[in-house]
Amino acid sequence: MMHIAIAGNIGSGKTTLTGLLSKHYRWKPLYEEVDDNPYLNSFYEDMRRWSFNLQIYFLNTRFRQVIDIRKKGKNVIQDRTIYEDAYIFAPNLHAMGLMTTRDFENYVSLFELMQSFLQPPDLLIYLRADISTLVRQIQQRGRDYESSIRLDYLKSLNDRYESWIGHYKQGNLLIVDVNNLDFSNKPEDLGSIIDKVDAQINGLF
């Protein structure tokens, strides 16, 4: 069984790359629940009111994903990890004053309990992108609820991603700078990523 997870900020291309790699390797894709998420629209309209609800929803769904991955024992590619929720999004909301300390401490306690049951992915692929790249790709996909995302919010998330990746020790890590790549439209760009993933996978056996 092989578990590859793709991490990165909003608009970095995680979902697109998950689909392309799952098609190439013929592995099962596990996507982040966006369209069926009952909190996203409300969150972007009023972050302070809905931040805790949204993060608990993500924590629950991704924990179920990881348990399901281990239970079924199939090769999978996962769009975003539970670690990003716990180490980036929730702390960022708390630091911005959009989640109360009481709620944040409750969230952290729940994550720590869940983490004792988790195994990290065999390979984590981090998509590194500048703010200008993120904004361009967010605008291109045109999701209504993302139109109100603030630049300072994206910037603070990017800073936390870089800090997290800089200290990531849970498993194998592949960093892909996507600023000058167009893997959704250029086969050669996708091929360069696949070559790097193949090298990582082959090193695991």
Question: Features of this protein?
Answer:
205 residues; alpha/beta; Rossmann fold; five-stranded parallel beta sheet
Specify the CATH class. Answer: Alpha Beta
Query: Main β-sheet: number of strands, strand sense, barrel status?
Result: 5 strands, parallel
Number of helices: 8
- The CATH homologous superfamily is termed P-loop containing nucleotide triphosphate hydrolases
CATH fold descriptor: Rossmann fold
What coarse outline follows from CA principal-axis ratios?
Answer: globular
Question: In percent, how much strand structure appears in the residues?
Answer: 5-15%
**Total DSSP E strands:** 5
C-alpha termini separation: 11 Å
Biggest β-sheet: strands ordered side by side in the sheet: 2-3-1-4-5
Total number of distinct structural domains: 1
- Judged by helices, strands and strand pairing, the structural class is alpha/beta
Describe, in plain words, how this protein is organized in 3D.
With 205 residues, this protein is α/β, with parallel strands linked by helices. The chain has one domain: Rossmann fold (3-Layer(aba) Sandwich). Helices cover 57% and strands 12% of the residues. The chain contains 8 helices and 5 strands, in the order βαβααβααβααβα. The protein has helices spanning 14-25, 40-45, 47-72, 82-95, 101-115, 131-141, 151-166, 187-203, and strands at 3-8, 28-30, 76-79, 123-128, 172-177. A 5-stranded parallel β-sheet has the order 2-3-1-4-5. Helix 3 runs antiparallel to helix 4, helix 3 (47-72) packs parallel to helix 5 and helix 4 (82-95) runs antiparallel to helix 5 (101-115). The protein is globular. The relative contact order is 0.19.
